[in-house]
TrEMBL record:
It comes from Paramicrobacterium chengjingii. It comes from the Bacteria. Coiled coil: none annotated. The keyword Kinase applies. This is N-acetylglucosamine kinase. Keywords: Kinase, Transferase.
Amino acid sequence: MTGSGLLIAVDGGGSKTDVVAFDRKGTIHARIRAGGSSPHLEGLAQSVATLVGAIREACAGMTASNIDAVHIYLSGLDLPIEITEFRHAFTVSAPEFSRNLVVKNDLFAVLRAGTEAEDAVAVICGSGTNCIGVRRDGAEVTYASLGMISGDWGGGFGLGETALWFAARSEDGRGEPTALQSWIPRYFERNSVAAVTEAIHRGELDRGRLIELVPGIFDLTDAGDEVARSIITRQADEIVTTAVTTMKRLGLGDTEVPVIIGGGVVSGKHPVLIDRVESELARRVPAANLSVITTAPVTGAALLALDAEGASADAHVALISALDESAPRGATVLPFRAREVWAG
C-alpha cells in the first residue's frame, strides 16, 4: 500500500448519492448521503454540484493534501463522451479532488459489491435498467441504457409507464380489464385514467412520478391481477434476456458465471419476480450462479478504491463490516431462493 491520506468513494444514482471517506485500513472517517446526482435526471451542472458539495462535506476539516484518491461511480454515465464531459466538469469545479480521479458507471460498483469474480455479469433494475459484463482478460460488455431509444425496457419508470398503458386500454376498452384502471387514478387523486393521462400531458403531473406505481403493481400482483402479474413477469424476462445475451457476447454462456442483480425493483425480493428470474436463467444458462445483492453499491465503490490501492484482505473486511453493520461477519453468501450476496 502506498499513501497515507484518505480515499473517497462515491455512488451516485437517480434518488440518492452516498459518499464515504475512509483510510487504507478500512476505517471510515465520514459517511454522507445527498440527493440524486444522475446527469440524465439532474443535468450535468447539478450532478457535479451535488457530488462536489457532498464530497466537501465528507472532507470537512481536511485539506486537499489529505485526500489521495476519489472514486466516483455514477448512474447516467453510459457513453464514453458522458464520462469525458463529467470528468472535465468535475475537475473544473473541484480541482482539489481531481489529482487521482476515477470516474465510471455505477454498475462497476454494483458488480464489485456482489462478487470478486473476474468473469461476471451485473444487471441493475432501479429507476431504469442497465447491465455490465466483464471477463478476466479485460473484455467488457456495456449498454447505452438510454431507455426505449436504446432498446431498454423496465426499471421503475418503465414499469409505471407500462401499468398506465394497460390501465388506459382497460378504461377505453382496447385492452383486458385490470384493477390498475381504478387504482392508478385513486393513487394520483384523479377521477379516471384519462384524467391522469391528461394531467401528465399538460404538465400538471410530473411524468417521473410514474415510478411511484411500482409498489402498487406488486401489491396487485399479490391480489391476483393478471395484468399486473404480466408486467412483473415481463420485467423478470427482460433481466434474464439481458444477462444471457451479455454472457453470450463474452463467450461465457457455458461456464459458471456469477450473475448479480440489484436495484430498487428487485431489492424487495418479490417471489413472482425473483422466482421467474431464477427459473428462466437456470433454463437458459444452467451454469449461471444467480445472486440478489442487498449490499449498498457504495460498498462496491469503496472496495474498488481499496483494490486500486492494494489494500489487505483485513481492510476489505473491516470496511464491509463498517458500511453494512447488518451483514454477518465472515459470510460471503446467504441462503435465499436466488442466493443473496453479502460482498466479502
